[in-house]
Write a structure and sequence with these properties.
heterodimer, A: about 250 residues, alpha/beta, Rossmann fold, 2 domains, six-stranded mixed beta sheet, four-stranded antiparallel beta sheet, 8 helices, about 35% helix, about 25% strand, B: about 260 residues, mainly alpha, MetI-like fold, 10 helices
């Protein structure tokens, strides 16, 4: 990561719910245009981490800064892809994707241009006027990804977004995500408990400890895209991450 | 696909017509078996219906006039219930503290049956407003409580989506909360309308006016004219059914997104 500009600094991040300490003094940097994966066991506080970063939840202690300023989703352009299907039932694919742009007050011509471009990029062409009840689970997730990317965010947080998809659909949508990321070069924090997914997608993996969650180790994934899951280097990295998380059991 | 849906629609219609004919057949059979002056046949009821429609009741008030008056009263009370119940339900759903601070007044009133207010209303109010008040009481609570609960039931994820983009509270209320609660508000309006219809009958029977379906039934009850009473009862049922169907039609039109069609 040498030579890359630091985009986000996380310092001494703590989050408690009453006496329960969920996030424990987390410290790390995120680089400009980086695809970072955060892996941790189920229930360790990954979603809390995402909610704290986007400020949907307040911090207990510490700071998360972007360009030296405390992150604030009203000031900074931060997008979120949620773990659960988050399409809004009464909005068509088109209307759902444009919601972020509408909130940020982008003019109509620009909205049309950007939404059209992202619809094409995510393979949703022809489904613009469909409601969520009329499209498949993977398409709903693509809508959520398109909605997050269309605002051209400084930071994109993805909280186990493919957890509810079958393996084949997941692979196809992961490839699509990599393609979009390579074209747009947005900074992404991708939270997952699927180790193979983390190695397949990211440039760097942060392995978390059990609750209270801290950073156990950072693993660099120095492999070109598209990645081959049978490649010996891929297997070596996956095994390394697996060794690191064996203590989850 | 469309052909299949149409075939299903005709099939359902056919079954309904069959059910109606079966009911009329059983009724006729019961008439022949019972042979009582207090148990009219469907044909006698139909004749009474024509008589009421064309010549009017014992005071020459035609059936159309009775229906019109009852509907007019329903409209006034139901509109008042919606105008007050929906905004108040929204307000109390959004700001739980308002509800918590006022429930000592709201909840006991909710459990008083509208009919229990009638003696008080007869003394305190006159004419049209008597009926409007009773109907309002009956329809208000289902609409108010339905709206309040639907606001509290909005999917938090649907709120977090715009919130994560920095949306204002006003944006979230207008674009997420309102569209999200509308189907349930419409359902509670349907429930409210049903109760309003029940209330108007009770109110008209006690209300001391000359015109209205409830009053018409009461007039014929005093004469023990069962055929005319049944006409009144059937008219109430048919109008209620019609109003309900209008609601369902509107619901289907407005909330096309609720149709579950998955590919």
């Amino acid at each position: 990561m040498s030579g890359r500009k630091v985009k986000i600094e996380v310092r001494d991040l703590c989050k408690c719910f009453g006496d329960l300490e969920v996030l424990n003094h987390m410290n790390f940097d995120i680089y400009e245009g980086e695809f970072l994966c955060v892996v941790g066991p189920t229930g360790c506080g990954k979603t809390t981490f995402c909610n704290v970063v986007t400020r949907l939840l307040p911090l207990t202690q510490g700071a998360i800064t972007m360009g030296g300023e405390e992150i604030d989703f009203k000031k900074h352009n931060v997008s979120f892809v949620f773990q659960e299907p988050s399409c809004i039932p009464w909005r068509t694919v088109w209307d759902d994707i444009k919601i972020g742009l509408q909130i940020k007050g982008v003019n109509k011509t620009e909205v049309r241009r950007r939404v059209n471009a992202i619809i094409e990029l995510t393979g949703l062409t022809g489904f613009e006027h469909f409601y969520p009840s009329q499209i498949s689970a993977s398409m709903k997730q693509r809508v959520a990804i398109a909605r997050a990317f269309v605002t051209e965010p400084d930071l994109l947080l993805m909280d186990e977004p493919f957890g509810q998809l079958d393996t084949r659909t997941r692979f196809s949508i992961e490839n699509q995500l990599i393609e979009i990321w390579q074209k747009t070069k947005r900074t992404i924090i991708f939270v997952t408990h699927n180790l193979e997914e983390a190695v397949y997608l990211s440039e760097r993996i942060l392995v978390c400890t059990q609750k209270p969650t801290g950073i156990k180790e950072e693993v660099l994934v120095d492999l070109p895209h598209p990645r081959d899951i049978t490649d010996p280097k891929f297997v070596e990295i996956r095994n390394r991450v697996t060794d690191l998380v064996k203590w989850w059991e | 696909m469309e052909e299949k849906i149409n075939r299903e629609k005709y099939k359902t219609l056919g079954y309904n017509v069959l059910t109606l004919f079966l009911f009329l057949a059983i009724w006729t059979l019961a008439y022949w078996l019972i042979k009582s002056p207090f148990f009219p046949s469907p044909l006698m009821v139909f004749n009474a219906f024509l008589e009421l429609l064309i010549h009017g009741d014992i005071e020459d008030v035609k059936l159309g006039m009775h229906i019109q008056q009852s509907l007019w009263r329903i409209f006034g009370g139901f509109a008042a219930a919606c105008i007050l119940g929906i905004p108040l339900g929204l307000l109390m759903g959004l700001y739980g503290r308002v509800y918590d601070s006022t429930k000592v007044l709201i909840e006991p009133i909710r459990f008083i049956p509208p009919v229990a207010w009638i003696p008080l209303v007869i003394v305190l109010l006159v004419g049209y407003f008597r009926f409007v008040f009773i109907i309002w009481l009956g329809a208000f609570f289902p609409i108010f409580i339905g709206t309040l609960l639907s606001v509290r039931g909005v999917n938090p994820l649907h709120i977090e989506v715009p919130k994560s983009f920095g949306a204002s509270r006003f944006y979230i209320i207008r674009n997420i909360v309102l569209p999200s609660v509308l189907p349930e508000v419409l359902t509670s309006m349907r429930v409210g309308l049903g109760i309003a219809w029940e209330c108007i009958m009770a109110a008209e029977m006690i209300g001391g006016e000359r015109v209205g379906i409830g009053i018409m039934i009461l007039k014929y009850a005093q004469l023990i004219r069962m055929d005319a009473i049944i006409v009144g009862i059937i008219v109430i049922g048919i109008i209620g059914f019609g109003l309900n169907e209008i609601f369902i039609f509107v619901e289907k039109r407005i909330f096309r997104w609720k149709e579950v069609v998955s590919i």
